[in-house]
Amino acid sequence: MGSSAKRKKEKQKDFQKPKLKVGKTKAKPENYTDTSFRSKSIVLTQQSLHLAAPSSNTQFTHNLSLLSAKSDSQRRDSLAYLTTTIASRPVNSPLPQPVSVILPSLLPLILDGTTSVRTQLLKLLKTLPRGDVEDHVAQLLPYVRAGMTHLAADIRVSAVEILSWLVEAAGEQTVSCAGGWIKTLNCFLSVLGWHTEESSRWSSNRASFGKSGSQGRPMVKVLGALADFLDAGIGKPFTGNADSDISEDDESSAWPFPLCQTAQHMISDSSAPYAYLNLFGQPRDEEGEMYETREDRYRVFSARFHPAMERGLKGAREEGGEMGRASTSVSKVLKEAIAYGPGP
After folding, report:
1. Domain range holding 226?
2. For residues 64 and 97, is the Cβ–Cβ distance under 8 A?
3. Whole-Å CA distances, 308 to 302, 315, 330
4. What percent of the chain shows pLDDT beyond 90?
5. Does 143 fall in a domain?
6. Distance CA 138, CA 166 (A)
């Protein structure tokens, strides 16, 4: 009796209509077979079918666009290609792209987090013509100062190395551009911890440079860069008797008698001779001003930075070791600048 009732209940179950609920998909039958399939394909939106290889200028522009790639190895390889292309070009031949086009892609890499990318960037910068670099110093310095005060120790070291190259390549333009004197000196004091008398006494206020910072090697680089920067800004100008005689002869031959010192009244050969007037820029404060003459830079240095420099150099000499030896180059530049004074 029980088995017949069970069979009857199972037959009724086969003919029961399931209740459907709103928002829920219909249940699939037990004998359902999935017939869907997926296909993978590679779609090229732009495909070149030309038989001729791309020109060197096209490849240069392509690698220049790859400097913003997410892969650090891609950025490093692109920098290596650009460096090789610029270094191997014929003498006195123009660059594949002007420096004004190349620099905007290079500047963010000063703050790149990969050491190999920054090292290759420095190699590329050294291959650029110095005459072209002089006209773009004002674009380079803000990124260099941001790197000098970066939280990462290796980025600070790389920024100091780039600043050393910039002073060597265009020292006069580096110290005389807008913000190039006061703001850069403030960065040096921040890195060295020499801003105040209290901070110069404690090594904890000095920016850390990682494991090698305990040995003082990165600080030696900073002091070397500071010595070169001060020499370019307030160092004693080099005047040779032979050069002065030649220049006087050339001037007298170029400008006949009654004209005298006419070259001083001519338009400058620089790309922006009236940049110091700031006709179309934002208003500048004292730190953002251009100090084009040595007298102006010496006046600002004596009033704002000389006491802090002397305190910091005294502490570096007392520390001894590599720091003490590196501080002698900065002290030598300061002694010569003070002996020469504001100028003749």
Report:
1. 178-238+274-344
2. yes
3. 10, 11, 13
4. 32
5. no
6. 11
